[in-house]
Specification:
Immunoglobulin-like; 2 domains; five-stranded antiparallel β-sheet; 169 residues
Length: 169
Amino acid sequence: MDSPIFYGLAADQDSEMNNKYSVGILTGALAISSLTAVAIQVGKPKELCRIEVSLPHISTFISKRQGIRAVKVNAYSTCNRPHSRVSLTVQLWKENLLLKEMLIQTVERHPNLVPARMRVYNEGTFVPCLNFKLSQYYGVAYAKAMIDGKWHIARSQLTIAIPPLNCGT
């Protein structure tokens, strides 16, 4: 790491206040520089592949195109290296009073080479609403891709509370 360069600090300043101010700036800058170096060394490496999963929602797209109300979840997979034979699986789950129920599972396959950071989407995971009963849903996704001759698997993680929807299934 390069040493920081400080401008405007002169050794011949005649005011005691300016000297204290200069020393304070230099000390603060060195402390910040040291913290930055530590943060860079401790930081986690980027994951090779990752998945983003949307919150389940009432789909306006399906409503307009097919004329039905449906709860839907979207997901995409991306890798920071070129990859192929991508398989992105998305599941829509409903939380019932006593148990969790998987309503549907869809798989989007992309057999060809996918450039680095290009997204592979799965936007076809939905279930029609049967009524307006308040229900809670969540999406789970996982992907598999071939990178440098080896299979890599990425999984989604549910980390937030999901608001209920007016969509009974």
